[in-house]
Amino acid sequence: MTPFPTRMIKSVLSKTLSTLSFRQHPTVRNISDTNTSRDITICHHPPINCLPDELLIEIFRLCFVDVELFLPPTAVGVPLLLCNVCRRWRDIAVTVPVLWSTIKLNKKHSARFVSTWLSRAGTLPIGVSFILEPSKFRPRKSHRHFDVLVPLSCRWQYLELRILPGASFRLLKDLSSDVLSSLEVLNVIDEGNFRPYDPSSFGKVFKSAPRLHSVDLWGVHRSDPLRMGLPWSQLIRFATDGYISVNGCHKLLDRLPNLRSGSFKILLGPEISQIPLKRLSLPDLENLDLSVASNIDGLLVSLVLSALRFLWIDCIQTEGWTHTNFMSFIEPFSLNLHTLQLFRPSMSEASMIQCLLTMPSLVVLVLQDHAEFGFIGDRLLALLTYSGSAEPPLCTRLETLHLASVFACQDSQIASMLESRWRLEYVSDNDTCCSYIYSHALDNAATDVPHHTHSGFAT
């Protein structure tokens, strides 16, 4: 074909296509024009910028919901991150008081920075975290921080104290008795860990806080919490890693009649006394976390915890309790227990099975046996297996099962249990997660899991 006819054919085709495009249905042309306009608009005006201020404010509030209570101000955290996006976001963020209602101070923050930050919280209750330092080492900025914070103490709702060795409580002791009217949560962290302070002078500062209901004391290993003049009767949460005895723990619980959540470390030997501990009922206690390094039979026998739903016990030493006393302890709450975590208890496999038989509502089960007590054996795993036999399986409502064992069971039994609980035709509606930690190599394991491997299975 010669060049001239080729050009002529291309010209005719081009005119034909142009005519067809012009004669297309008006609706199609309108849709095309709309799409083009929309693409241009999105390019220059992202949808997030088209949202009304009220909706952006609500989104910013939700950004703050899951943020850790005390975080140091940084450019990559809320709210400064929001302020760095654009001018509009900054203008909106500075008008949302909740974003500025907590602050964790350190030496680099100027008093002006702290004052500006907290002024944006408006009249909201605030949360502050600061360091108590020895007077002779306290930098000038710390004094200026207190000049800003102390006048706002009537609005302190959350307070975190990081205490350095030799710290003085003078700045807090100078507070009047009615200035902590909003305080609800107190966290004390002794960052020295080894040098004790006088707890009586510390606790008196907070004795008159009418709303204080939650206290955490960490790193205060050698300070007796019983000597703190806290408003014990109004606390609903108390946690400490201080070294206390069985009797000391009982005395603490006796001072906490409204306790709902408690965490204690019983690391001291029992006092020499032949008088049994009195019966103690805590009808509101739902969470109990114990770390024990001595026999706690006396404490278990004395407690009546009818509302308990979450129980964690870590046995640092092997001799924690006798089985009979433990069964008596769990009897008032076993039917409704949601979570059981036992680490290294001195229990046989038969005792553990008897314990789990009384807990039909368990949703979370975490067990770690001891080198001398390998209670996670074939019989226990068989009863955790959906076998279709007349004998009903244990813990049919489990959603999470975590076992850490010295490997007192057969590989095939582990595989059968996992297969039955997570095979489609047997799986319970509630079963969602299982893991097993092996303490020995599995040479011929049916599950083909290597040494020290954590295996997760999900429906």
From TrEMBL:
<dbReference type="InterPro" id="IPR036047">
    <property type="entry name" value="F-box-like_dom_sf"/>
</dbReference>
<dbReference type="InterPro" id="IPR032675">
    <property type="entry name" value="LRR_dom_sf"/>
</dbReference>
<protein>
    <recommendedName>
        <fullName>F-box domain-containing protein</fullName>
    </recommendedName>
</protein>
<feature type="domain" description="F-box">
    <location>
        <begin position="48"/>
        <end position="104"/>
    </location>
</feature>
<dbReference type="InterPro" id="IPR001810">
    <property type="entry name" value="F-box_dom"/>
</dbReference>
<dbReference type="Pfam" id="PF12937">
    <property type="entry name" value="F-box-like"/>
</dbReference>
